[in-house]
Design goal:
Distance between the termini: 47 Å
Shape: globular
Structural class: alpha/beta
Number of strands: 16
Order of helices and strands: HEHHHHEHHEHEEEEEEHEEEEEHEHHHHE
Number of helices: 14
Bound molecules: S-adenosyl-L-homocysteine
Length: 359
């Protein structure tokens, strides 16, 4: 048992089974033993890699998209340039470098990173040395004002609850104890108001996920953009409408059992883009997309950018660059599973890359 497994087992023995959301939150962010709290999991030596770590083009194109959206909105100054869950700070560094091409953007930007992990904050500080950056524990702590936000693989790290459809209602999937070890179980059936609309499109035995934290943050971002203007680019993997069990644990680039080593494996769930869109729209924002990541990067000009970079490379480095381009955009790689939605204020144009309608 990991130290965190022992802590959770003691708590469950004392107070009963915990929801998956409580379990995920402890596994990822427990101050002493949480996965993100204690390590930098990204990159080849870590447990997983992400689009900004695969190629600088990802952050550059999203940075330019934000800068163009800012110019399209009359260059509000100052404005909040925010990124929740910035990992190593790579996306923001690439975005800021590319956005130098937009006169006035960097001068007006107040860069705010929302990061829960002290380890990753230190990493971001190093990556972004030379930039004035403010860190916050939560999106709610950001100053009010025009908001230009980018989030990549942030929402998938937020805790979810799971419910199994039952003839008598919904049974919540919980983490309890069996023979002293952590084990999944099902709570007794109950009606769940937030799932009333799913009675029509699910059958007994099916699993549905609810991400209350993700929805609350989408509403917060949407509300700020509706009130003060701005855009949000939200990129992640997932589908339109939660269907089935998507909880996954990853350790050293390989799937793992979510209960096997709490705190030692990354835990994520697919993002339910319909739920995010509905929450943001409910708070007054307009929602564009979803657009597949491959299509979005294509529309933002990744082919032209890739050619410019390729012209300076040869041999193995050229091969790696072309492989990265394929990995980000090809439908069999990240191009289709990853998608993006764009939030903007009603009556304003959608952010660049979202204006061609959903493919
Ligand atoms: N966006 C980065 C990192 C993705 S990993 C990239 O694309 O490479 C998820 C990130 O979200 C990490 O930085 C993690 O520490 C952070 N994170 C996870 N849960 C969080 C929470 N509840 N509040 C703030 N940050 C969180």
């Amino acid at each position: 048992m990991t130290p965190l497994a022992r802590i959770l087992a003691r708590r469950i023995a004392a107070t009963g089974p915990m929801t998956l959301a409580e379990f995920m939150a402890e596994c990822l962010l427990h101050p002493a033993h949480g996965y993100y709290a204690t390590r930098d999991p990204l990159g080849a030596a870590g447990d997983f890699t992400t689009a900004p770590e695969i190629s600088q083009m990802f952050g550059e194109l999203l940075g330019l998209a934000l800068a163009q959206a800012w110019a399209d909105r009359g260059r509000p100054a100052p404005f909040v340039l925010a990124e929740p869950g910035p990992g190593r700070g790579t996306l923001m560094a690439d975005a800021l470098r590319a956005a130098r091409a937009m006169p006035g953007f960097l001068e007006a930007a107040r860069v705010h990173l929302v990061e829960a992990s002290p380890t990753l904050r230190a990493r971001q500080r190093a990556t972004l040395a030379g930039h004035a950056v403010t860190w916050a524990d939560s999106l709610g702590a950001l100053p009010e004002g025009p908001l230009f936000l980018v989030a990549n693989e942030f929402f998938d790290a937020l805790p979810i609850r799971q419910f199994v459809r039952d003839p008598a209602g919904w049974r919540e999937r919980v983490v309890g104890l069996r023979d002293g070890q952590l084990a999944f179980g099902l709570a007794p059936p109950l009606p769940v108001a937030a799932l009333a609309h799913r009675l029509a499109d699910t059958a007994p035995g099916e699993v549905v996920e609810l991400g209350a934290a993700a929805e609350a943050l989408a509403a917060l971002i949407g509300g700020r953009i509706a009130r003060h203007g701005g855009v949000a680019l939200i990129v992640d993997y997932g589908g339109w409408r939660s269907r089935g069990d998507t909880l996954q644990a990853v350790r050293a680039h390989a799937p793992a059992d979510p209960l096997e080593a709490p705190g030692e494996a990354d835990l994520t769930a697919h993002v339910d883009f319909e739920a995010l869109a509905r929450a943001a729209a409910g708070a007054g924002a307009a929602v564009a997309g979803p657009v597949a990541q491959g299509v979005l990067l294509d529309r933002l000009g990744i082919a032209a950018r890739a050619r410019v970079l390729a012209a300076r490379l040869s041999g193995d480095r050229l091969g790696a660059h072309l492989a990265a381009l394929r990995r980000l955009t090809h439908p069999d790689e990240m191009g289709r599973l990853f998608r993006a939605i764009g939030l903007h204020a009603p009556g304003t144009p959608p952010p660049p890359g979202f204006d061609g309608g959903a493919p």
